[in-house]
Amino acid sequence: MTLPPFPPELSAAPTVRAFGTALASFACHNVRAHGVQVWAVTGGSLTVVGEEGRGLGLSDGTLAARALAGGQPVEEGMLACLPFGTGVLEFVGADPAGVTALSGLGPLLGLALEGVQAREARRGRGRVAETVEQLVRRLGGSLDLPEVLTATAESAAHALGFGRAFVGLFSEFGEQGAYTGEVFTYGLDEGFTGGIKIGPVSFERLVMHGEVIRYERVRDAGTPLAQGLSELDPEVALIAPLSARGRPLGVLYVDSRSRGARASEDDTWLVLALAEQASLAIDNARLYATETRKREAAEALREAGAALAGSLHLPDTLERILERGVSLFGADAAGVYELQPDGRTLNIRSAVGLPSEYVLRVRAKVGAGVTGRAVERREIVTALDLTREHLGGGSRYTRQLLAQGKYPYRGVVGLPLGTRAGVFGALTLYWKEVLPLVGDELALTEVFAAQASLAIENARLYEEELRREREAAVLLNVGRLLGEDQGDRTLAEAARLATLALNAGRGLIALTGPDGQVTRCATYNLHPPSEAERASLLSQLGRGPRPLTRRHALPVAGSALIVPLRGDAGGDHLLGFLYADDPGTEAPSDRVLALARSVADQMALTLTRERLLSALAREEARYRQLAEGAHDLILSADPAGTITYVNPAAARLLEPLSGLLLGANLLTLPTPATRPALAAAWDAAHTQSAGGRAEIEVGPHRLEVRLSAVRQAGAPHSVLTVARDLSELQTLAAEIQRRGQALEAATSRQTELRTYLTLFTQAQEEERRRISRELHDDTAQVLIATTRRVARLARELEGPQRERADDILLDLNAAIESVRRFARNLRPSVLDDLGLLPALEWLATQAQTDTRLEVSGTERRLTPALELTVFRLSQEALTNVDKHARAHSAAIRVAFEDGCVRVAVSDDGQGFTPEQAQARAQAGHLGLIGLRERVTLAGGELDVESEPGRGTTLRFTFPG
Q1: Helix count and strand count (H, E) for the chain
Q2: Same domain for 316 and 406?
Q3: Who's near 620: CB < 8 A, 6+ residues apart?
Q4: Are residues 771 and 836 in the same domain?
Q5: For residue range 889-911, what is the model confidence (pLDDT) as tens digits?
Q6: What distance in Å separates the CA atoms of residue 47 and residue 69, rounded to the nearest whole number?
Q7: CA-to-CA distance for 958 and 646, rounded, in angstroms?
Q8: The domain spanning residue 862 has which CATH number?
Q9: Are residues 739 and 634 in the same domain?
Q10: Contacts of 4 (CB under 8 A, 6+ apart)
Q11: Are residues 237 and 209 in the same domain?
Q12: Does residue 432 share a domain with residue 316?
């Protein structure tokens, strides 16, 4: 094909897009292509500037980018790309000869494109630079946001000669587009409301692509854009995006209502340049305002923190938190909610501005309402307008007010108050109007909540420290009294101290005997209870301290508590109980109950001291009896090594060899060869907590000895020696060791083989995957491309040559199908793409034997490794059916159960006996053995059922 003449209209094109449109039409006509796209580098990226024809959906720009980067023509399927200068011609279904002929015009096309781009750049550069410079001088580095916005609108209106302009900042934006809130105008009527809506399509063009939207009444009448601008009623308008640091700020709008007004391409570039310069100025002004607010807020928070730190009493601290919270954030009311011991209820501990009835009746639930959600999530929760949002109320009273439309507040902020001991509660701020806080102001509330939490924690720690000091003094006095004397007067004094510490009016300490009945009773401000009253109190004892109601307390008491005195740290050994009551009806708090437990533990510890000493003497006698009857050798020696005790077993074994042991030296008993070992064990017993160990020989006996020091306060350590005759045990131990080593070696070898088999299987699957992918992605694609080229060549041939080409096409199609089938057999893509069940269904269709797939249970995806294992096992089982079973039908049954999956592959073939299976394995047919090993590697179980003439069933069970 001859070289077509260069079209002169390309060099004279006014814009790059006009050049692209003309070139696409010229190229599509000359190369007889289905479609043509012209790509050009504009703004640093490769974009489409012209197109002609159809089939352009096949292109995504990848081939054009490759051609431009390599500087050479590129062809792929029906697509072909021809680079020229900074542009690319992309053809769909073009005549190769025409593309080759057109490539001769590449240098001329590149020069023409460069000329058009240069003219386009020169046309708008001078006017744009002058207008931007005027705006910069007009702003003069101002950081006042209203001044910046007003100057931008005025400069844009003057520069374009349109007469009207405004700058609108986004108040909100999302999937439905955006709305302009704060607006600064020039030349507009006072009746202009200021808010316009930017639809999602326009918003994407403005914000995502950075384009300028151009509106013309004649062209755009009846469009959504015209409806959005109906209030302004412009003849022509330009809308440019304002954005900085990747964040959308708003829009710059310029229009004219003069009939016949038009906006040129230069006007578009001018507005865009003004918008870019204004965006920088707006962003700087906003940053300055933000920093100013932050400094003011930081100073206010610093003052608040200093005020909160000035008190260590919790009520005073809560009052200061509320006052500062209301003052800082302009709230109409505030309340501090405290989490109750049940962990589910929040009560108002302190409040400012809240009605008294509200404070008394509100019982918020954790997880409900603003306050409950803040405590549950441990993060700030806000309600812009609680009367409209579906957050509900935290208590029944709040929900009633909301339902009746009488709830007094609209804006609500819940702030969790946490300490190291856990959640204290929440600080909730209330406004009668819609929540006025946004962004950084809400972040400041979180900072203030953190300061409040710290102040609360400090106050609680201070009060806790005071309480602990008082409690420690009570415990110390009670322990000292009962430690010195346990008479009636001392017991009565202990009852007085305990009663006062528990903030009670009356109290008593009752001691019980071995039968569990009260034997002694000491009281404070209380007549000794009768036998029936003591029995009633005994019946109320539990495992620890517990409050008593008026019904179970002693007469006159409104509330009471009782705590048992147990001598074995909360066990079943009862020593007595401590009782205290008060005329008031308020139940004892958890703190009082905890103190009662501590006092009772201290009393129990002191009261059991004598009993422990008596028990120690009894235990010593019992241990001596055990030593006398033990079969092991037990000897005791003083620090010098002199034997002070010998049990009968040691006397029977050693005294015939060494004479009388009592008074002899322990270190001289063994033969000279093993004495150093005993001496080393002796030293270890004195220096190491675990004691010393050695093997020694005494005559014909080989003994294993263990030495441990018996430590006594204020006295040298004696040594206890326990020995065992090893003569009979050594032979048995050697045999056990030998067999253990052999078993360990066999286990290690089996583990290595299983590890190797696992890695080998994984490598095999990876290799199959790679080969399948290469066959599908490379070989098959090459064959497809070759098929297309042969098909294209066949269309150009005639007669016998065309028939030969058609035969080649048939062979190529058969080869493609063969490659695809081989790739699927190696690694079916359906397993990776769709999962196990579709893969098994495909496997059933590929089997030579008529096979069906049955599934039961709730279907779910398994792990990729387990799905691959099940697929391969089923594939191997069906292969065995096709080769050996002589079956008419087969079935794959998959059962999804809780915690496991069961797979069964069955057939109605000839079956086999265990002897036949073993014979086939010895003959080298290892299919069943391989299946069993693969199931074991996957952590599953294999069950084989087969009888001659009744078919075979393989059942695989895997956890998962």
Answers
A1: 29, 32
A2: yes
A3: none
A4: no
A5: 999 999 999 889 999 999 999 98
A6: 14
A7: 62
A8: 3.30.565.10
A9: no
A10: 26, 30, 101, 102, 105
A11: yes
A12: yes
* Same domain flag for 429 and 549: no
The total domain count for the chain is: 7
State the amino acid at position 283 in one-letter form. Answer: D
Q: Element (H or E) spanning 138, and its range?
A: helix 106-139
Q: What is the mean pLDDT of residues 181-200?
A: 73
Q: What angle do CA 8, 11, 17 make, to 5 degrees?
A: 115
Extract long-range pairs of 283-286: CB within 8 Å, 24+ residues apart.
Answer: 283/244, 283/245, 283/249, 284/143, 285/142, 285/143, 285/144, 285/145, 285/148, 286/145
Length of the chain: 960
Question: By percentage, how much of the chain surpasses pLDDT 90?
Answer: 7
Taking a C-beta distance cutoff of 8 angstroms, is the pair 640, 647 a contact? Answer: no
The single-letter DSSP state of residue 163 is: S
Instruction: Tell me: pLDDT of 745 over 70.
Output: no
Residues 6+ apart with CB under 8 A from 921: 928, 929
Is 135 inside a domain boundary?
no
Q: What is the CATH number of the domain that holds 282?
A: 3.30.450.40
Which sign, positive or negative, has the C-alpha torsion 52, 55, 61, 62? Answer: negative
Within a domain: 738: yes
Q: How many angstroms separate the Cα of 262 from the Cα of each of 130, 237, 238?
A: 21, 9, 10
Tens-place pLDDT, residues 67-104 = 988 889 999 888 999 999 889 999 998 888 888 888 88
Residue 240: strand, helix, or coil: strand
Q: Torsion angle, CA of 62/65/66/71, rounded to 10 degrees?
A: 160
Domain that holds residue 688: 630-725
397 assigned to some structural domain: yes
Examine the domain organization and report whether 313 and 449 are in the same domain. Answer: yes
Taking the whole predicted model, whether its pTM rises above 0.85 is answered as: no
Characterize 752-780 residue by residue with b for buried, 16 or more Cβ atoms within 10 angstroms of its Cβ, and e for exposed: eeeeeeeeebeeebeeebeebeebbeebb
What are the structure tokens assigned to 734, written together? 């050697």
The answer to whether residues 215 and 181 belong to one domain is yes
Average per-residue pLDDT for the chain:
80
Angstrom distances, CA of residue 138 to CA of 64, 149, 151, 176, 288: 45, 11, 7, 36, 19
